[in-house]
Structures are given as C-alpha cells and as structure tokens.
Amino acid sequence: MSGVWGWFGGQSAQKRKDTPKNAILGLRSQLEMLQKRERHLQNQMDEQEAIARKNVNSNKNAAKAALRRKKQHEHTLEQTTAQVATLEQQIYSIEAANINRETLAAMERAGEAMQQIHGKLNINKVDDTMEKLREQHALGEEIAQAITSAPIGEPIDETELDDELAELEQEQLDNQMLGTGTLPIQDRIQRLPAAGTNEIKGKQPVNSEEDDEEEELRKLQAEMAIIGFIYHRRFNLLFTCTFTIALTYRQGREVH
C-alpha cells in the first residue's frame, strides 16, 4: 500500500520523469542479452551441422543426433528472435510515448508563457497605444514643419526685390545697347550712301515725292529707336529689322 501512495504522491517528480528512461535502459539491456543468445544459438547450429556432415557416411546415428540438436537450437533461436522483435517494438513505443509527452509539456510551457505575456494585453490597449503613436507622429510632423517654414529675421519685401531686379535689367540693357551701337541710329543713317544726283540712262530722276517718303521713313526709324531704348531690350530686334528694311529700300531705289 505504501508503494501505491508513494507512486501517487510520495514519489518525486524527478523519479517519475526518469521512469521512461529507466524502462528503456532495462529493455535495451535485455535486448542485448537476447542478441548474444541469438549469436550463441547460431554458432551451436553451425557446429551441429558440421558434426552431421562429418558423420553422414561413417556414423549415421551420430549424424542424426547432431541434426536433432540442431533442430532444438533452431527452435530456441526462433523464440529468441521473436523476443528480440517484441523488445525492440516496446522500446520504440516507449521512446515515442516519451517524445510525445515531452512535446506536450513543451507546448504547455509555451502556452503558459504566452498567457503570461498576454495577461495584461487586450485589443483596447493595443488600439490606445497605436492611437498615441499616431498622435505623436503627427505632432512630430507639425513641429518639423514649423521649424522649417518659420522665417528667420524680418521678412523681405518681394516688391522691392522685383523693382531692384528691373533696374539691374534696364542698366544691363543700356550698357549692351551702348556697347553695340544700337542707340545712335542717326549716325548709321547718316553713314548711308548718298542718293545719286546724276541721271541714270534710260531712267527717270527721283521726284520730290520719293524724297518725302524717305524723310518720313527716317523719322519713323528714329522714333522707334527711342521707344526701344526706353522700354525694353526685346525691341532691339525690331530696330534692327526696321533699319535693314530702310537700307534695302534705299539700295533698291538706287538700283532702279
């Protein structure tokens, strides 16, 4: 009775844990002994067969007795082989059961660990934590935006900058026009070849009406040059074109 109570309550956990191990060790020891017996019986069978072969012609009784002993050893060997197979099956079963038990124990410990980890966690706490993280992230973005967008010092008047830029552009335009000779266009007009006074053979002389047209063209050129100098550099192209037209017109008249 004391053994029963010792099994249920008095036996230590370590001994219960070592029970499968001890059982396997005992079975392996018995298996080793049976395997040795198998080898011994096989040797006995070979020996009796050799005796029978030796006396098969000279002493048939001895040969028959040897064969009888061989049969007995063979029967015992068959029983021993069956016992070996049974022990091996038991060892495999105990090992598999022990592995299953250890696997289940490991899974139970993992479940307890997860339960302990999740003991203070729930979906509401997770949602609250994620909401706080989003708020802090948004706050960080606002702070970074405020730091990078806030001007340092007094703001600069963009209108003043535009006016100053326009003055610089006008100054550069004036320098370019003075350097290329665009402004004094009257000098270029004066350097144009004079109209011929001699009569061209077979041609009529230039009448006063054409002189008036030429004078009006010169005035128009001068006015457009003044307007381009005052307002914008892009009228420089128009001045050049007008001058070219006038020169072509004058040369055309001389040819005709």
Automatic annotation (TrEMBL):
MF terms in GO: identical protein binding
Domain of life: Eukaryota
Keyword tags: Coiled coil, Endosome
Family from the record: Belongs to the SNF7 family.
Species name: Blumeria graminis f. sp. hordei (strain DH14)
GO cellular component: cytoplasmic side of plasma membrane; cytosol; ESCRT III complex; multivesicular body
GO BP annotation list: ATP export; intralumenal vesicle formation; peroxisome organization; protein transport to vacuole involved in ubiquitin-dependent protein catabolic process via the multivesicular body sorting pathway; reticulophagy
TM segment ranges: none
Gene3D superfamilies named in the record: ESAT-6-like (1.10.287.1060)
Name of protein: Vacuolar-sorting protein SNF7
Residue runs in coiled coils: 24-97
Location of this chain's protein in the cell: Endosome
InterPro entries referenced in this protein's UniProt entry, alphabetically: Snf7_fam
One Pfam family hit: Snf7
